[in-house]
Amino acid sequence: MDHLEAHRASFTGIIYQGLAVCGNVSGHTYHYCAAADNVGAPHLGMGHPTGVPADLPELFRDRLGDDLELYPILSYGDTTDVTLLDALFASEPLAEAFAADALAYAAAHGLQGLNFDIEPTATGTFWEDAPKFLGVVEAAFSAAGKRVTWDSNGPEGRAYPVDEWIAMTTYGYDTGDGYRLEVVRGLTAVGPDRFGFGMCPTCTLHNASDVAGRFAYLAKPPGSLAREIDLWATYGGAGDAYFDNWADYWAPLAAWLKA
Predict the structure, then answer these.
(1) C-alpha 98: how far from its chain's center?
(2) Is the pLDDT of residue 173 over 80?
(3) Cis peptide before 221, with omega less than 30 degrees from 0?
(4) Cα separation of 90 and 36, whole Å?
(5) CA-to-CA separations, 216 to 5, 11, 210, 256, in angstroms, rounded
């Protein structure tokens, strides 16, 4: 938190992990959910490998200001079992209950919306049913003046009814310029108002020149069409290479926001 406070001019909001799809369908559960949440039909629950304080949104705002935008991540990654997702996404009543619970959570903590980070290693019918499920969630959130965003590894999210499509394909897992093509693809698919340029200091150790090159790209067309940058946050602490890698991002982020 101290580190974030020191660089408050470099970001407008935080998307934090803590929510998940929990439940029990014929013995199938999600291993990041608490045992108490892994019962009954698929539903919204707390789920994270390290645990998250129930008052985390309030802790963020106490230190970082009331104007901080906050979105919880609804995560479902690192698993080969998608039974819960298949059941949830295929059922309109379950989708409606999920949307109501998520909206109640967002309202209780004064959140701006909900972010989905669905990255299981297995495939299932949930991919085909996602537009129907997300349509239910987005309609509920839109009616309440809140947003739904989607973290995307490729074209699967471009046709989804969400307010913002965050491209993880622009992370750049090498030091080349492939991210530029992904920006064009994303902008063309969803338009500037729904496109989020994804960066990930935690994924790849880009040097200062690589980082500067990305922000230079964002300063002129077509990169300058992007209206939002979303960065995957670090783990670890000072002295960890991935944590220290953020040093090259803070100043360019502040300058980009000011511009």
Answers:
(1) 18
(2) no
(3) no
(4) 24
(5) 26, 18, 10, 10
